[in-house]
Amino acid sequence: MFTIDTSTEFGARITKQLADELVIWLTTVGGSGTPAPNPVWFHWNGQQVLVFSQAAKAKVHNIERNPRVALHFNATFTGGDVGVLSGTAVIDGSGPTAEELAMYDAKYAEGLASLTMSAEDFHREYPVLIRITPDKLRGF
């Protein structure tokens, strides 16, 4: 099972970023083998990263073809604070738990309000749940 060593400065920073940052980059691999990075909203439930997507997006098709993905945070302007998670993604047709949904909606309440969109509207437009289970962390 994947764990983050929070006793290190790096592990503590990654844990904080997973809890606090609003955007993470999800990189899938297209049919031609080309990496396809996309900024996405996400929720870390302590073991998996959850991302919601519109149904007909390339990232969904890419994951169905090749479930290996990478996630990374924005680095500093000078290239510091690099954190990259690698793992396996699945399209979860059963959806999020009630707790996961509540945490996600709370995290993005302000962002949704700025889009004049309710949580219900968002989940209607972005109904596909992608669950990413990390198996490797690297960075500095």
Description:
This protein has a single domain (9-139), classed as Electron Transport, Fmn-binding Protein, Chain A (Pnp Oxidase, Chain A, Roll), CATH 2.30.110. The chain is globular, with a radius of gyration of 15 Å. The chain is built from five helices and seven strands. Helix content is 31%, strand content 32%. The two termini are 22 Å apart. The mean pLDDT is 97. With 140 residues, the chain is of the alpha+beta class.
Helix content: 25-40%
Number of H- or I-type helical stretches:
5
CATH superfamily: Electron Transport, Fmn-binding Protein, Chain A
Tell me the name of the CATH class. Answer: Mainly Beta
| Number of DSSP E strands | 7
Strands of the biggest beta sheet: in what spatial order? 2-1-5-6-7-4-3
Largest sheet: 7 strands, antiparallel
Pfam families: PNPOx_N (PF01243)
Protein name: Pyridoxamine 5'-phosphate oxidase-related FMN-binding protein
Organism: Kribbella flavida (strain DSM 17836 / JCM 10339 / NBRC 14399)
InterPro entries: F420-dep_enz_PPOX_Rv3369 (IPR019966), F420H2_bilvrd_red/Heme_oxyg (IPR052019), Pyridox_Oxase_N (IPR011576), Split_barrel_FMN-bd (IPR012349)
Based on the model shown, name its key terms.
alpha+beta; Pnp Oxidase, Chain A; 7-stranded antiparallel beta sheet
